UniProtKB/TrEMBL annotation:
<feature type="domain" description="Periplasmic binding protein">
    <location>
        <begin position="56"/>
        <end position="313"/>
    </location>
</feature>
<keyword id="KW-0732">Signal</keyword>
<dbReference type="Pfam" id="PF13407">
    <property type="entry name" value="Peripla_BP_4"/>
</dbReference>
<comment type="similarity">
    <text>Belongs to the bacterial solute-binding protein 2 family.</text>
</comment>
<protein>
    <submittedName>
        <fullName>Substrate-binding domain-containing protein</fullName>
    </submittedName>
</protein>
<dbReference type="InterPro" id="IPR028082">
    <property type="entry name" value="Peripla_BP_I"/>
</dbReference>
<feature type="signal peptide">
    <location>
        <begin position="1"/>
        <end position="47"/>
    </location>
</feature>
<dbReference type="InterPro" id="IPR025997">
    <property type="entry name" value="SBP_2_dom"/>
</dbReference>
Length: 350
């Protein structure tokens, strides 16, 4: 895991800010004891200060999506390994920026050394993250970058643009020169991961948004039922759709259901991104032709390790750390590297 040494003055500044924040949190937590005259909390207090357990917070988009459940599992595993005090929070729904802002504020008040976050809104979350960093908290983005990327210290994520490219290249090869009628079932406006996958698919296929082969575009919020509705809308607009790009596998399965109800499932190529166990099972059964598999457990494991290294060795983390991606399909095309569903099921999100 690459890192670079911080300038000495900056190291001291961040350590001082972090220690001050943790002392403040300890003071607030022991207010009742202070009133009783049983303890004191001042410059010499050691509650959570240097030498105490490293404190890490994980904030995911939601706590119900299996992707983020696996991410939380990775954080817990790494926290136990490194004797880290882990706190977790999540938005109430995909897109809940307000809930994530509150979580950031609560974790800073509790004296965390580092926060890992999968931002629900890549831009709107930035002021809260900047305030956390001003108080000496290391902030790492997982899975999705902020806008601008410099709003966090580092990003641990799949190369989502590459993930999109892989399935775009695959779909292009599978069409074998046949005229494509493409439906784009996207995430939501303002979410970087959705934009990256969308743009990557188009690049892999060798087209632009304005290309006439893109006959329908819909936002789905990554939800299966909304994916089904979006596909139904697209089929009303263009009944001869033969390629479907989906932001994730729940949306892909929703699209498959809509296509099947119209007798079009066998004639339409569906490609997706994520590589969860359910998604890979859909590849194995033929509902999804291919998916790009990413590894959220690895993102969280490496994120916790990064905070520990930062606190214990005074190192700074900068830039992007690629946590890997593989194309998963049981119908590989010549010239493109791929793994089969057996590999995918063995590695699904692990």
């Amino acid at each position: 895991m690459p890192s670079s040494a911080m300038p000495a003055a900056r190291v001291r500044a961040r350590r001082t800010a972090r220690a001050t924040t943790r002392r403040t949190a300890a003071c607030a937590a022991s207010a009742a004891l202070l009133l009783a005259g049983l303890t004191a909390c001042g410059e010499g207090a050691q509650a959570g200060d240097d030498g105490g357990p490293v404190k890490v917070g994980l904030i995911t988009k939601t706590d119900t999506n299996p992707f983020f459940v696996k991410m939380k599992e990775g954080a817990k595993k790494s926290a136990e390994k490194h004797d880290v005090e882990l706190s977790t929070a999540a938005g109430k729904f995909d897109g809940d920026n307000e809930g994530q802002v509150t979580a950031v504020e609560n974790m800073v008040a509790a004296g965390v050394d580092g926060i890992m976050i999968t931002p629900n809104d890549s831009e709107a979350i930035v002021p809260a993250l900047e305030q956390a960093r001003d108080k000496g908290v290391l902030v790492l983005a997982l899975d999705s970058p902020t806008e601008p990327k410099t709003a966090t210290d580092a990003l641990y994520a799949t190369d989502n643009h590459k993930a999109g490219e892989l399935i775009g290249e695959y779909a292009k090869a599978r069409m074998k020169g046949k005229k494509a009628k493409i439906a784009m079932l996207d995430l939501a406006p303002g979410v970087a991961v959705g934009t990256l996958r969308h743009d990557g698919f188009l690049k892999g296929y060798g087209i632009k948004d304005s290309d006439p082969s893109v006959v329908c575009s819909q936002h789905t919020q990554g939800d299966r039922s909304k994916g089904q509705t979006a596909m139904e809308n697209c089929l009303q607009k263009a009944p001869d759709i033969n390629v479907v790009y989906t932001i994730n596998e729940p949306v892909a399965l929703g699209a498959y259901k809509a296509l099947k109800s119209k007798g079009r499932a066998e004639d339409t190529l569906i490609v997706s991104v994520d590589g969860g166990c359910t998604g890979v099972e859909a590849v194995k059964s033929g509902k999804i032709a291919a998916t790009s598999q990413q590894y959220p457990l690895v993102m969280a494991e490496q994120g916790v390790e990064a905070v520990v290294q930062h606190v214990e060795k005074d190192t700074d983390l900068k830039g992007y750390y690629d946590t890997g991606v593989n194309l998963i399909t049981d119908d590989a095309v010549q010239g493109q590297a791929a793994k089969d569903s057996t590999f995918g099921l063995d590695r699904c999100w692990g």
